[in-house]
Amino acid sequence: MIPPLAIPTLSTGRLTLRPFAEGDLDAFAAIWADEETTRYVGGVKTREGTWLKLAGYLGHWVLRGYGQWAVVETASGRLIGRCGLWNPVGWPELEVGWTLERSTWGQGFATEAGERAIAWAREELGLTRIASCIVPGNERSIAVAERLGMSFDRMDTFPEGHEAAVYAMAL
Question: How far is the C-alpha of 104 from the C-alpha of 81, rounded, in Å?
Fold first, then answer.
């Protein structure tokens, strides 16, 4: 058996950011099956497509040494989404990003998880700048980026050719 990846587990007041596990598939697939939740992050995924996302998130850790965490509401133990660092080939810039279950929107979870991921990036990776690459019109994510301290930096392009509004800040 190959040993598991050395992905850290982080905590906030209400959340646990931990490595994804195969047992997360059903809960994560339910999040990715919601059209409104996935509207600005590539759209609805099948269960199989969600499995590929999980595999990609774990692979990003192997290739880059950082990546996405499973976001768990600590009190209930319920998986509510993902948050972390992302910078695949062709991406506009290393970013912190998030996708959370719609029932949790408006409770500050994305900001809380984003703050913790940014702190880890500054402390462990020595980053001096962080961005969020957001599809224009995604006002909820723009508001989170601004609450995290970012401001509009520029327009850029995602690898698929779609526009990206890059919000950024110095760390």
Answer: 9
Rg of the chain on CA atoms, in Å = 15
User: pLDDT digit string (tens) for 40-81?
Assistant: 999 999 999 999 999 999 999 999 999 999 999 999 999 999
Give the integer Cα–Cα distance in Å for 71 and 145.
17
Q: Which two tokens stand for residue 91?
A: 């991406």
Name the nearest CA neighbour of 144 among 116, 117, 93, 109: 109
List Cα–Cα distances, 91 to 39, 52, 83, 123, in angstroms: 19, 19, 17, 23
Which amino acid, residue 15? Answer: L
**What pLDDT digit, counting tens, does each position of 106-122 carry?**
999 999 999 999 999 99
pTM: 0.96
In terms of Cβ atoms closer than 10 Å to its own Cβ (0-12, 13-18, 19+), residue 38 is middle
